[in-house]
Design a protein that fits this description.
It is built from 10 helices and 10 strands. It is an alpha+beta fold. The structure holds acetoacetyl-coenzyme A (CAA). This is Acyl-CoA dehydrogenase, short-chain specific.
């Protein structure tokens, strides 16, 4: 059993950390304040090869493993997890299903520019009445010969509006229920495909979240992803990998909150000594560090299993559930250690606390993760 990243993975970790310190950290507070999506940072990640880490060379990728990509998301998320989740959404929820289920023509047209970071990807499953109940899709695609006619809408879509490529799910045969859902590839700018409300969120305000609207969008047959009726399987298997990405985001947030708390506890003096000299604070730090380490092993192990081609849905759900709960607990404790300053926007821990909350909610609430874990255990 090896508990170390490989030399290559450590080099990548160092490279992303330096990029995070130099390029991502400086504007993080302002992007949060102004709800500003930093396309330039995404472009820079493309130039660094982060969008292609775990994709085959034939599509312009580095032929690396999923764990390397997960380490990159974790490192980015230490500095600004809005940047981490922008990458993770494009890679896990758009690039991956095209690689896994796309035709060669779809890979040439959509995957290659995504892998190069020239385009950004998004994933549209959620609707007002199809959240946890993802099978209750109201968006409809009707087969019209050479194209499908798509009508409906999606909400809470990460990267929505900014992305050029969208993996979208729609009902093609309502009578078949879960087996009547089909996946499609849509392009920004297709006639009838527009953007609605932009969400104003509690956290991850540097990540863009939009409503997608489809009014008689003609989607060519060539843009159907996978077979008719295969959409639910595509969505669920895509989310399995995506959940490791959210877990890495949560891990990065938790690590950042812990690092800030340690530094502050050593610097902040009350009653003539650093507050870290009080056991009440030191024991909090001990608990926080233990939780972060435990989360890291679950997250890395889920990625390792995926890389081995072994079943990992349960482990991905465990990693996502645990790491996001840890992110919530550790950021809350970090704010507590900072006291009044922690509640102020002058310090980053209040942003980390707000951002941590989403990791318990998206790509399946933690209640959904428990369903996935329990059904795997009881199968
Ligand atoms: N991989 C492949 N196939 C799968 C699968 C998986 N992980 N999970 C289920 N399936 C297949 C099953 O095999 C089954 O097919 P068969 O009948 O042929 O065996 C079919 O799908 C239905 O399976 P279930 O009956 O188990 O599915 P369910 O309806 O009970 O699933 C649920 C329930 C787990 C709650 C599921 O609906 C779910 O995960 N919901 C949450 C959806 C979600 O995560 N949404 C997040 C939106 S995306 C987002 O947040 C992105 C963003 O912007 C960042």
């Amino acid at each position: 059993m090896h508990f170390e990243l490989t030399e290559e993975q450590q080099m990548l970790q160092k490279m992303v950390r330096e990029f995070g310190e130099k390029e991502v950290a400086p504007g993080a507070a302002a992007r949060d304040e102004n709800e500003e999506f930093a396309r330039g940072l995404y472009d820079a990640m493309g130039d660094l090869g982060l969008t292609g880490l775990c994709f085959p060379e034939q599509y312009g990728g580095a032929d690396g493993d999923y764990l390397s990509y997960i380490v990159a998301v974790e490192e980015l998320s230490r500095f600004d997890d809005s940047v981490g989740i922008t990458l993770a959404t494009s890679v896990s929820l758009c690039q991956w299903p095209i690689l896994a289920y796309g035709t060669e023509a779809q890979k040439q047209k959509y995957l290659i520019p995504l892998v190069a970071g020239k385009t950004l990807g998004a994933f549209g499953l959620t609707e007002p009445n199809a959240g946890t109940d993802a099978a209750a899709q109201q968006t409809v695609a009707v087969d019209n010969g050479d194209h499908y006619l798509l009508n409906g809408s999606k909400i809470f879509i990460t990267n929505g509006g900014e992305a050029e490529t969208y993996v979208i799910f729609a009902m093609t045969d309502r009578a078949k229920g879960v087996k009547g859902i089909t996946a499609f590839l849509l392009e920004k700018g297709m006639p009838g495909f527009t953007f609605g409300k932009k969400e104003h969120k509690l956290g991850i305000r540097g990540s863009i979240t939009m409503e997608l609207i489809f009014q008689d969008v003609k989607v060519p047959q060539a843009n159907r992803l996978g077979q008719e009726g295969e959409g639910f399987k595509i969505a669920m298997s895509t989310l399995d990998g995506g959940r490791i990405g959210v877990a890495a985001q949560a891990l990065g947030i938790a690590q950042a909150a812990f690092d800030h708390a340690v530094k502050y506890a050593k610097e902040r003096t009350q009653f003539g000594k650093p507050i870290a000299a009080n056991q009440a604070v030191a024991f909090m730090l001990a608990d926080m560090a233990t939780k972060v380490e435990a989360a890291r092993y679950l997250v890395y192990r889920a990625a390792f299993l995926k890389d081995q081609g072994r079943p990992f849905a349960k482990e991905a759900a465990m990693a996502k559930m645990y790491a996001s709960d840890v992110a919530m607990a550790v950021t809350t404790d970090a704010v507590q250690i900072f006291g009044g300053y922690g509640y102020s926007r002058e310090y980053p821990v209040e942003r980390l606390l707000r951002n941590a909350k989403i990791t318990q909610i998206y790509e399946g609430t933690n209640q959904v993760q428990r369903i996935v874990i329990a059904s795997a255990l009881l199968r």
